[in-house]
Amino acid sequence: MIFVSIVASCAVKKDIGILKGNAAGDRLWGASLFAQKGTARLATEITVNCFFFSTTMLVFSGIFVAWAGGFILLWLYGQGWFLDFSIFGVNMRDLFQVHTMNLSVAVWVGFLALFGIATDNGVIQSTYLDQTFQRQQPDTIDTAREATIAAAMRRIRPCLMTSATTILALIPVLTSVGRGSDIMVPMAIPSFGGMLVVMLSAFIVPVLYCWVEEIKLNHHRSRG
């Protein structure tokens, strides 16, 4: 889009070159420069607002955190020292069937289930952040940070409850030994590890959201 505007301006410059120096030529030249700057600014704003800084990208940021948590737990399952202790005479490695897990189809299905669950915290927080910013409409960086902190504190408890219920529900699956456990346990490991780590998104999403709002405020301030 910017390239097209540059080519168009060059063509206009060539066409009105013979007119430059008189009133009509100067007005036409000024109009072409204004159109070129407007096109470049429009392309930049569309790219920034619709791709990089969209709320959807902030919501999906929890997926990358959950992805890391799932692989961390898979790596821990292959370590001899992980859960190598006993509680009330029950060895934790035997209880949770800790052994090396290969990247089977069941493991990847567990990752797919994890990605759907991991976005819950982002949706909870980003929705309330949107409502808070629409209601308060902060016009400075300090007020934007105050609004972000207030909104994040109001939604930290629902995020923890969402993650805690999922983690507690996966514990019986991880300790199952009956029919089908050889499929269910590899599916539950990535989900369990990801949900343990995805609670960090309760801090990551508000920080990214506030950072985006600060960039927008600086952008509007520079334009003004």
Secondary-structure blueprint:
Elements: H1 2-16, H2 23-52, H3 55-59, H4 61-77, E1 86-87, E2 90-91, H5 92-95, H6 105-136, H7 141-174, H8 181-198, H9 201-223
Antiparallel strand pairs: 1-2
Structure write-up:
The structure is a single chain. This protein has 224 residues and is mainly alpha-helical. It is 79% helix and 2% strand. It is built from nine helices and two strands, in the order ααααββααααα. It has helices at residues 2-16, 23-52, 55-59, 61-77, 92-95, 105-136, 141-174, 181-198, 201-223; strands at 86-87, 90-91. The protein has a two-stranded antiparallel ribbon with strand order 1-2. β1 and β2 (90-91) form a beta hairpin. The longest helix has 34 residues, at 141-174. It is elongated, with a radius of gyration of 27 Å. Mean pLDDT is 79; it is low at 1-20.
Q: What is the average per-residue confidence, as pLDDT, rounded to a whole number?
A: 79
Q: Strand count, sense and closure of the main sheet? A: 2 strands, antiparallel
- Side by side, the strands of the main sheet go 1-2
- Bin the strand percentage: under 5%
C-alpha Rg (nearest Å): 27 Å
Distance between the termini: 24 Å
Unreliable stretches (pLDDT < 50, length at least 5) are: 1-20
Q: What is the molecular shape?
A: elongated
Structural class of the secondary elements?
A: mainly alpha
Give me the strand/helix succession: HHHHEEHHHHH
